[in-house]
Amino acid sequence: MQTVFGATLAFFLFLPVFAILGVLYCAYPRTPRGAARWLADLAALVAAAAISLAVMRWGFSLATGVAGPIWKQIVATLLAYAAFLASMGVALALRTAWFRRRAQAR
Length: 106
Hints:
This protein has 3 helices and no strands. The protein is an all-alpha fold. The protein has one domain (3-105). The radius of gyration is 17 Å and the shape is elongated.
C-alpha cells in the first residue's frame, strides 16, 4: 500500500462520521441563524477537518507497526477521530460563549 494512500485512508473511512457530526453541529441550536453563524460554523468544520487530517498523517507516521500493517491505520483513525471531536468541542464551547455574549448585549 502506498504511503500517501495509506495515510489518507483513515480520513476517507471516517468521512461519513465526520459529515454526520458536522451536520449535527451546524443544525443545533436552531436559533440564532445568520450569515455570521454559517461562516463561523463552516470555518470550524474546515479547521476540524484540517486538524484531523494533519493528526491522522502524524499518527500514521508515528505508529511503529509492531502488530502488523493494519496497526498504522488503527492508530491514525483513532487519532483523527479524537482530534476531530476535540476540535468540534472547542468550537462548540466558543460558539456557546459567543451566543451568551450576544444575548447579554441585547
